[in-house]
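stuck on whats below:

***
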Amino acid sequence: MIRTAQHSDRGHVRQVNEDSVWIGSIQQEYTLGIVADGMGGHRAGDTASQLAVQTIIGDLQGLEAGLSLEACRAALHDAILHANNVVFHTAQMDDSYHNMGTTVVAVLLRGNSGIIGHIGDSRAYLVGEEELRLLTQDHTLVNELLKNHQITQEEAAVHPRRNVLTRALGTDAEVVVEIDDIQLKIGEVLLLCSDGLTNMIGNQQIETVALAGIPLEERAKHLVALALEAGGEDNITVALFEMDDSTVELSTKGWEQ
């Protein structure tokens, strides 16, 4: 019912890919997608993102069929909090993982309805013919300055501390998870990505490629290729979700809002 694609690359600068990505189905009813961008250096960032993704998958893979929107929202929220606990306590037990953490953006879809949970500056976008809409708000110092009208969008793009997070998964014992609901229509594409994509290419490029009339997997690869061509200064990860219009009657049986 939902077409999906994912692609990830370590980029031209980093020695390892500290991003992790996973897309899969649960109970043949839900689609789960996760992008995590690890931090803390070579070994720690890679470990943090993998632990986060594995924990969320493990918690949600037994999700019962037919759950309400409220129950699924709570399940995704709790799975991300559990991942925070796992990453935080792993770092406490091993000095080589000191201060490791990760961003996370995850979506749980049932038909055309979805729930997004996120921490950090990995993003979710809804791309349609009329607009590209950012569904998440970056938990960064620069975004706080923007919201308080202390800097402009132009200044934010080149701010020397634009990569400083105000919230991450696994760096503290407690964290707040942002949860949002979405509706995915025929002709729209849901994009999850790490900042290695959005720091390299603009909204117009994202929109053009996401809606291109080519297979979804090719669109995912093309987005990553554009970020690489623009410099590839970080790991780059994308996950794409699109309604299959050939099964529209089945696909639109999501949660009632």
Observations:
- The longest strand covers residues 30-39.
- Residues 69-93 form the longest helix (25 residues).
- Confidence is low (pLDDT under 50) at residues 247-252.
